[in-house]
Amino acid sequence: MAVTGVDLHVDKGEIFGLVGPNGSGKTTMTNAITGFFPPQKGRILLHGQDITGLAPHKVARRGVARTFQNLALFNGMTVLDNILLGRHVHMHPSVFRTMLYPWLARPEEIANREVVEEVIDFMQLEGVRDEPVDAIPLGLKKRVELARALVAEPSFLILDEPMAGMNQRRRRSTWRASSSMRATSGA
Question: How far is C-alpha 88 from the geometric centre of its chain's CA atoms?
């Protein structure tokens, strides 16, 4: 059993670190919160609402975004397209909206792309925005994954080993960027 008897509370605006040795349950806890592996016992509350057992996409719609310990990017797609996927919780696709694209879907697409472009600039990914994500170095891939989480505009952001595989200089710049983003978004 990786996670037993855990009781924790994270306040809005609080930075909370979960630290422990390999195999202690940090990623399992993250997977339980985000709906990937629902707990066998207990409850998970988000803003006072029970999200225990909700599917990951429903947890994301409730305002939870995450990065993964092992990168979860889509090889073969560009950096831009990978980051755009983070906006899925704000999009409202339908056949009807597509038929009326110029009036309904286009303004939504433009608004979502503006958010993505702002985060691309903020995370200093302009130079690789059109590159296939599998062609960029690990440190940049980590920033792409963080950018994808940030464009979701989450109320609860979970970073699972966000600095793994990065050199010291890249760790500092990524930390500064994410800290500054939190300050500007009020998260």
Answer: 11
107-138 burial code (b ≥16 CB/10 A, e <16): ebeeebeebbeebbeebebeebbeeebeebee
What pTM does this model have? 0.77
CA 187 to chain centroid, in Å, comes to 13
With bands split at pLDDT 50, 70 and 90, how would you rate the model's confidence at 183? low
Considering the segment(s) 26-182 as one domain, its CATH architecture is 3-Layer(aba) Sandwich (3.40)
Q: What is the pLDDT of residues 137-165, one digit of tens each?
A: 998 999 999 999 999 999 999 998 877 76
Residue 53 has pLDDT above 70, yes or no: yes
**d(C-alpha 96, C-alpha 93), whole Å:** 8
Alpha-carbon distance of 154 to 67, in angstroms, equals 12
Distance of CA 99 to the CA centre of its chain: 30
Domain boundaries, the chain: 26-182
Cβ-based neighbour number of residue 66 at 10 Å: 25
Answer yes or no: are the C-beta atoms of 3 and 28 closer than 8 Å. Answer: yes
